[in-house]
Amino acid sequence: MSQDALLLVEGLKVIFPTDAGIIKAVEGIDLAIHPGECLALVGESGCGKSVSSLAILGLLGTPPALVRAQTIRFDGQNLQALNEQQMAQIRGKDIAMIFQDALTALNPVMSIGRQLDEVFLKHCGMNKSQAKEASIEALRAVGVSSPAQRYRQFPHQLSGGMRQRVLIAMAFAASPKLIIADEPTTALDVTIQMQVLEELRAMQRKSGTALMLITHDLSVVNYLADRILVMYSGKIVETGPVKQILKRPAHPYTEGLLTSVPRLDTCNTRFYQIPDQVPNPMNKPSGCHFHPRCSYAGELCKQTMPSLRSLSPQREVRCHFPLQKGEGGDSQHA
Amino acid sequence: MLKVENLAISFPVKAGLFSKRRHIKAVRGVSLTIQKGQIFGLVGESGCGKSTLAQAVIGMQRPTQGQVFFKGDDLYALSTPAFRAARQNMQMVFQDPFSALNPRFDVQRIIAEPMHIRGGFSGEQMEGRVLELLNLVGLSPEDRHRYPSDFSGGQRQRIGIARAISLHPELLILDEPVSALDVSVHAQIMNLLMDLHEELGLTYLFISHNLADVKDISHSVGVMYLGSFMEYGPTAQVFAQPLHPYTHSLLAAVLTLDQQKEPVITRGDIPSPIEVPPGCSFASRCPLAQPKCQVETPVLLEYRPGQLAACHYPVI
Question: Which residues in chain B are contacts of A161 at CB distance < 8 A?
C-alpha cells in the first residue's frame, strides 16, 4: 500500500530539547496519503498533530526542533534531501496549506487579489493580467460573492468565512497534489462552518487533490474524511476507515473522544468525561501513555507500551485490550 | 433574580470627515428574565451581541436604552456603594482562560483578589477560603503557590471559576466557558459547572455558540441574531419544536457523528450590525422568507406557552 502513496512518512520523530527537559512531541509515526484521499489527523491540543504536519513540510525551525524520520517521500521525491529553495518550490505548488486563523495567515497590508496573484505568478508562470483573471475565477469557484470587487479588498474588510474561502482558493490555486488543512473551520460559526466545509469538500472532489485534515472535531472528520489517524501524546493510537472507527472504535481513547462530543440527539443530564488531563509532554506516563486515564487499563498497560497492531487489513490499534476484535471475530486469534 | 427590559446598546463608529456618524447596533431591544436557581442559555453566532448583552447585565457596559434589574433594583440607577454591593453578587467566567488570569500572580493571589478588593478579610480567612475553593473546583491545595503558566487550559478555567465564586455570588455569567477547551476537558468543566450549580444554588447566564452545550443544562434559552432574540422559551421545547427558521438553520448546521444525516447549509453571510437590514434581520438568509419579511420587522409573539418567536411565518 505504501508503494502508490502520494506522501509516505515513516518513523517521524520530533523532539524539542528545552532547559526544563526534553519534549517528545512526536514519537515515531508512520502515515501514508494516497492521491485524492482525505486523511484526518485527530487528537487534542499537544498530541503532536500540527507539529507532525509542520515537520513534514520542513516548516519547523531546527533548532529548536530535532526532526528525524526514516522516510519522508512525496510524489517520488525524498523531501529530507531537498534544500530550502527546492522545498519552497514544493510548498505552495505541490503541497498547499490552509491554516486555522485566516486573519494571521493573510497579509494585512496586501489586497487579497494581489496575494492570490502571487501564487499564479510564482507557480504557474502566468503574466499579470492572466493571474488577475485566474484569481477572480478562483474566488468565484469557492463561492465568494462579487469576486471582482473582493479582489481589490483587504483581509480586514472580509468576514471570517470569506477569509477562510480566500485561503481555500489560494490553496487550490496552483492545482497542488496535496493540501494540508490545519483546523480549517474551528474559528468559524456553525452556519458558516458548514458553508466552508461544503466548499472544501466540493473543491477536493472536483480536483482530486489529496487532503490531510488536522482537527480535534470528530464531526468534521465524519463529514470530510475517508481515513482517520488518532493521535495521543505523540503516538498514533488508532487508524482505519472513518466509517468503521466512528461506529466501532477499538482504542479506549477514541471511544472516549467519541462519547465526549456533545450531542443534540440524546438527552444526558451528565456529560461523559475522560478523567484527568492530557499528560505533560516532558513527563509522560510509563507503559501506554493513556493508561492513567483509561478505565480498561490493567497491570500490563502500566509497564509496556503496546505496539500498533493490525485489527483488520485496514485498521490498526495501539492497545493491549482493544475494544474491537479483528474482522471475523475471535477465530482470527485462535 | 435578573430581569432585562428592552435593552439596546449601540456604539458609535469612526466615520470619515463628511460622512454621517454611524452606530453599531450590538443589542437591539432584548428582554429576558432569569429566576433564582435557573440556568439561562444564550445562543448565537459571533457578532450577534451576546457578549455585549452579558457586559450590560454585569454592569460593565451602560446600555443606550432599557434597564437591567438585579434582584429588583435597576442596576444603572443605583448609588455607587449599592452598585458595588450588587456587582459583588454577580461574577463572570471568561472564555479564554489564558488571558483571563494575571500571569504574574500565583493562584492564591488570583483567587483571593476579589476578597482583597472587597476588604474585611484577614489573611487567614482568605487563605482558608482559597483552600476551600480549590477543593471545590477540583484542584489540590499545593496548586495555590503555582502560576497560571503551570496549568493546562482546563485547570486554568477551574481557577477562573474559583475566583468567580470566591465572594459567594448568586449570579454567574459564563461567557463561552468551555469553547476554548479540548473535547475531553470540555466535559469535565461542564460537569463541574453543573455540580456547583446544584451545590451552591447558583443562577447562571450561560453564553455559548454551541447549541449542544446549552441543550442539556439550561432551563430556558434565547437564540440571538444580529442583536435581538429570534426565539425564546423553555429549552426542551425550543430544541424539540423550534419555531424560528433561524433556530432550524442553527440546529441543522450542527455536524454530527451520524453517518446518514447530511447537514443542511444556510446560505449567505451574517449582515453587518452597522447596516441592519430593514424588516426581519434574518430575511436575507432565510429559506422561508416572503416579501413581507424584507419590509416589516416581526415582533416576539408567544406561539406556544412560554415559547416566543420573532417571525412572520414561524414553523408551527
Answer: 269
Alpha carbons A104 and A109: distance in angstroms, whole number: 12
CB B303, CB B241: distance < 8 Å? no
A124-129, long-range: CB < 8 A, 24+ apart: A124/A173, A124/A174
Other CB atoms within 10 Å distance of the CB of residue B197: 18
Give this complex's ipTM.
Answer: 0.75
For residues B189 and A260, give the distance between their C-alpha atoms in angstroms, rounded to a whole number.
12
Closest CA to B100 of B161, B44, B49, B189: B161
Q: Give burial (CB, 10 Å; 0-12/13-18/19+) of A159.
A: middle
Residue A302 C-alpha cell reads as: 502500566
Maximum C-alpha span of chain A:
68
Report the residue from B45, B154, B211 with minimal CB separation from A264. B211
Domains of chain B: 2-89+169-310 (3.40.50.300), 97-168 (no CATH)
Q: For testing the chain B interface, which of A145, A165, A190, A266 should be mutated: the one with the most B CBs within 10 Å?
A: A190
Q: What is the distance between the alpha carbons of residues B158 and B170, in angstroms, rounded to a whole number?
A: 18
Beta-carbon separation of B155 and A277 below 8 A: yes
Distance in angstroms (rounded) separating the CA atoms of residues B57 and B52: 9
pTM for the full predicted model: 0.82
Q: Closest approach of chain A CAs to the CA of B195, in angstroms?
A: 10
Contact B195, B161 (CB under 8 A): no
B170: pLDDT strictly greater than 90: yes
Cross-chain Cβ contact A194/B253 below 8 Å: yes
A194 closest CB neighbour out of B183, B213, B265: B265
A45/B258 CB distance under 8 A? no
Question: CA–CA separation, B211 vs B214, rounded Å?
Answer: 5
pLDDT of residue B310: 94
Which residue in B139, B155, B254, B255 has the most chain A C-beta atoms within 10 A of its own C-beta, making it the best mutation to test that interface? B255
A220 and B212 in contact by Cβ < 8 A?
A: no
CB-nearest partner of A260 from B45, B152, B184: B184
Are the C-beta atoms of residues B53 and B6 closer than 8 Å to each other? Answer: no
Cell numbers for B214, please give them: 446549552
The per-residue pLDDT for range A29-50, each reduced to its tens digit, is 999 999 989 999 998 888 888 8
Q: Is A101 on the interface with B (CB under 8 A)?
A: no
Per-position DSSP letters for B20-38, written without gaps between them: PPEEEEEEEEEEEEE-TT-
> What is the Cα–Cα distance from B170 to B168, expressed in whole angstroms?
7
**Predicted confidence (pLDDT) per residue in B137-159, tens digit:** 989 898 889 999 888 888 899 99
Inter-chain CB pairs, A–B, below 8 Å: 124
In whole angstroms, give the CA distance from residue B118 to residue A186. 39
pLDDT tens-digit readout, B4-39: 999 999 888 776 666 677 788 889 989 999 999 999
CA distance A18 to A6: 34
